[in-house]
User: Fold this.
Amino acid sequence: MTKHEAFLLIHIVAVIVWLGAGTTLALTGLYAERRGDRVLLGRIPLLGQWLGPRVFGPAALLVLAMGFALVDEGSWSYSMLWIDLGLTAFALTLLTNFAVRLPLLRRLESAEGRGGPESPEALGAAGRLLALARLDLTILFLAVGDMVVKPTSDDTWVLVAGALILLAGLVGALVAGSRHERLRPETAG
Assistant:
């Protein structure tokens, strides 16, 4: 096995772990939403928080490190569009995790401390976290497509399709984030 093959293997396995864990959490969230299971819905973000430093973080760092190693070892350069798109996807997911996900997790923990995991505020934060996870997965799956197709600036339709998928993921996340209302406990009236 060459160094390039070893780097590529580690890169791909880390992507599988990162996306596999994220996809499983997102699908579990969808299951909880569809069943109206407020307890499970409230636990998924906390599981994601636990997995963050144990699975998501290490896998993401391995993906990035092996990506850099592949570029340095291979015949590619950082001026290639598909590499720029992959690095942009990584930066977007990093930004959303620090700027949006971490504050939402703090809000969820605070809400649970005040009103429990089924409180309206906690369910709202959990719903927004799951919507953000769906957007994050859209970005990451687009990055996988980018790595496979390796588009150049001449691949207009590939780039347009990617932009439309990203837009659909953003709209879907916004819609999903607003649907948490139906999971709130019934109020006596």
